[in-house]
Amino acid sequence: MAAEPRSDPSVKYSFPPISPAGARLLILGTLPGEESLRRQQYYGHPRNHFWPLIAALADKPLPLSYEDRLALLNVNRWAVWDVLEGAERIGSADAAIRNPAANAFGAYFAANPEIRAIAFNGQKARTLFRRFVIKPGIVAENDFAMIALPSSSPLYTKTLDEKLAVWREKLAPHTEPRRKR
């Protein structure tokens, strides 16, 4: 997307990716919501289940600071990003996304060659990825394990425990083995 529309309050942009060294799994959302944009944090809404899910999967208590939450991603060597670089959207609902533009995944995967799986935080992320990113010569669908996860959004009706059971089951093969001390 061009830089000009950044003054338009209906145009939203994603954050840079969070990519721990040697990341093997990329968790993709769609586009940051209003509270995340205000806080300049991935999954910044306090009712979003993303960070409680990541903490539980890392077998750690939920950290209070954003920096400590980001450190949880290192436990399993998981990266986080959004499918969209930008789009028009009033509010935070994925259903309100208009005129989307995808992030530069060809360059991202070239710079992060150890990523073997992509997990989609919600159906809309998966749909947008398939629509805008799966292209010959850039990304083929069989290049990665593709994992559909229930959305961590507070608007998605499953409870945290229900979401955790699915996330744990589907992400288990992509969890780093814990080192014995």
Provide structural commentary:
This protein is an alpha/beta fold and 181 residues long. It has one domain: Uracil-DNA Glycosylase, subunit E (3-Layer(aba) Sandwich), CATH 3.40.470. It contains six helices and seven strands. It has helices at 34-39, 50-57, 66-76, 105-111, 123-132, 160-171; strands at residues 11-13, 25-29, 78-82, 84-88, 98-102, 117-121, 145-149. The strands form two sheets. A four-stranded parallel β-sheet has the order 3-2-6-7. Strand 6 (117-121), helix 5 (123-132) and strand 7 form a beta-alpha-beta unit. Helix 2 packs across helix 6. The termini are far apart. Mean pLDDT is 89; it is low at 1-5.
What descriptors fit this protein?
181 residues; alpha/beta; Uracil-DNA Glycosylase, subunit E; four-stranded parallel beta sheet; 6 helices; 30% helix; disordered N terminus
Poorly predicted parts: 1-5
Number of strands: 7
Q: How many independent structural domains?
A: 1
Helix content: 25-40%
The number of helical runs is: 6
Please give the largest β-sheet: 4 strands, parallel
User: What share of residues are in beta strands?
Assistant: 15-25%
Gross morphology is globular
Classified by CATH, the class is Alpha Beta
Kindly report the CATH topology: Uracil-DNA Glycosylase, subunit E
Question: How are the secondary structure elements laid out?
Answer:
Blueprint: E1 11-13, E2 25-29, H1 34-39, H2 50-57, H3 66-76, E3 78-82, E4 84-88, E5 98-102, H4 105-111, E6 117-121, H5 123-132, E7 145-149, H6 160-171
Helix pairs in contact: 2-6
